[in-house]
C-alpha cells in the first residue's frame, strides 16, 4: 500500500516513545520507507537500535553526526518525506517548533520539510492544559500542522487525564489518510449508507436483517482516503465506523430515509450500501397485543424506498449507486433495479456464493451500468470499494 512512500517519525522524550516502535513496524509491513529521528532525551526511553532494526535505516539523533551517508542529511531527508509525524511530541519540542527554534536534528529536519506534518502531544494532564502549551499547539495548527488530540486515561505518573498519546493503530490511520492514496476525490462530497435498519415490533422485538455494515464502511473509508468529504449514515453495524468521516447514527428505515434525503443534492456521489428492512409494523410499538404470543399477528407496511427517491430527485452531475443482493436471477433483477430506481450503477451480488454477502470480509460483485457490466472476482471489501469508486468517477466524467 505504501510502496515508494517515505514516513519520517520524529520521537521526543516521553514514556510513550515505546509505542512508536510498533508504529514503525506496521508501516514497514505496508512497504513504507521509515526514517526515525530522535531527540537526545528520547534515547533515555527507547534505544535507537530498536528503530534501526525495525526500519533498516540509521536512526538520526545528532545534527553533526558524520557516520551516515550524505544523502540522508536533514535537508535531503526533508525532501524525501511524504509525511512527518512527531510522536510523542513533548511540550518542549512543540514549543520549539511553534516558535521557529531548530537546534537539533529533529527540529531542523521538521522545519525543512515541506510535506504534511502531524503532531501527537503526549505529556502530563496539567502540562498539556498549560496556557502556554495550548497557545503553541494553536500556533502549529495556524501554520498547517495537524494535531492528534490526546486520549483520556491513566498517565505515567498514575494520574488520570487527557495527555495520553493514542495507540499506534490510531496514529497509523492519520498517516494512511495522508499518503495511502492519491487524492483524486478532493472536493467531492460523498454520502454512504451502511448497516441494518431495525423496525420495532414492541419494546423488545424488531424486524431486521444480517447486514454487518462492512461494505458501506469500506466504501466510506476508501472515499475518505482519496480526499473526499464523507458522511456515513449508519444503522446497526458489526464494525466501528471509519475515522475522519462524519457519522450519522440511525435506527429505523424512516430515520435513514430522513437522514439521506435531507440536503441530498449537496452530495456528488451517493452509495446506498445499507440493507434496509423492507417492512415495518403498522401498529405503534406500545399498542396492546393479544394475550397469547401464539395468537399475535403483526400487520406490516412497506418502508420508504430510499434508492427510488434518490433516483427520482437526482440533480445534474450527481452519481447514484445502489446495491442489489439477490438469491436468484441476480443480474436480471439487478438490471431491472437499475432502470426502475433511475440509478447510475448497481452493485449486484448473490447470497448463494461463498465469500460474498452479509458479514464477510470479502465480496463478489458485478457492477452494472447503462453501458454494460463488469464482473469482479472475489476480493476484500476494502479493495472492491476502490473499484466501485473508480467506476463512479468514470461516470461523472
Round the Cα radius of gyration to an integer and report it. Answer: 25 Å
| Count of the separate structural domains | 2
| Sheet/helix structural class | alpha/beta
Percentage of residues in strands:
15-25%
Q: The biggest beta sheet, please?
A: 8 strands, mixed
What is the CATH homologous superfamily assignment of the largest domain? CoaB-like
CATH architecture of the largest domain, please? 3-Layer(aba) Sandwich
Average pLDDT works out at 91
Number of strands: 21
From the spread of the alpha carbons, the general shape counts as elongated
How far do the termini sit from each other?
26 Å
Strand order of the largest sheet: 12-11-8-13-16-17-19-20
CATH topology of the largest domain: Rossmann fold
Q: How many separate helices? A: 13
Show unreliable segments.
284-292
